[in-house]
# Entry
Amino acid sequence: MKKTRRGMTLAVGGLMLLGLLAGCGPKKPVLHIYTWSDYVKPGLVKEFAAAHGCRVVIDTYDSNEAMYAKLKAGARGYDLLFPSSYMVKIMQDQGMLQPLRHELLPNLNNLDPDYLAMAVDKELAYSVPYTTTITCLGYLGSRVEDVEASWAMLDRADLKGRMTMLNDYRETIGAALKFLGYSLNTLDDGELAEAKEVILRWKRNIAKFENEQYKTGLASGEFLLTHGYSGDLMLVQEENEDIEIVVPREGSVLSFDDMVIPATAQQVELAHQFINFILDPRVAAEMTEFIYYLCPNQPSYELLDEEIRTDPILFPPQEVIAKLEMIHDLAEGNQKYTRLWDEIKGSE
Ligand code: SPD
# Structure
């Protein structure tokens, strides 16, 4: 099915600096946002800037860890970030975030209670869910035979060198753990050792670990199968209608990317206004339709196109949801995963 709702050229790639200068003037306040790429509808950002007499500057990252490392290295000046929930917990524990002022967020009531029940920060003390992601496999329907909705696809000899996996230690170790039937938050050394062997085998069969080029690579046919994020894979279906998306039957990752205000933010009030703007049902619906990630905003659902409202990746059936697991902050246990990832990256 060809998707053309966005009516614009796909913009993917590395770090982008997007200055939206709606009615700009030298004295206007500037809201600095640091978020994932392809994660906002430019028209909505312009609308916000015009309504609030400000400029909005957007800088992008391709993993939670890249964002965290940049902040830890001393990057200041961001007013709003979009980490996944496990990273919110890490940053919150390290004093990197500031508490949210709920009196500035009247639209919080619109959050979908079903998703809120799964949130890590249920009180919304430091974070507000922006979107949900399911980590999936995307492939070219006419080029890959005998497809199974399984992580076992990464072992297929006929796809050798034509597949990618995410360069993201929790996602990729998580995929191997799910393939083996384990929790993707396990701290069991034996299970982690088995996962390492699986990823080393996959590593020999794939082209690379990568977070951005897989999108255009799949659309162009350079890659035949890629491990990637649901909305990004749906986005590239616009470029190539041969792309199919599956959630592996062994289970996968469900993520929330949350809106948080760093402790060092300069434009705290404007950041709250932006969060509240996103929580408006009309804005949330437009965002979902543009980025293909679900904004878990209940009253927005009835505003969505029928095609989006019935999409099984955006609104998965209960039996799929039941197999998904969220990544949790494992405190000291995180080191087991970083060590394992270093060993995987360092070996042939
Ligand atoms: N292009 C936007 C990608 C963001 C998807 N969410 C990432 C979740 C990581 N666990």
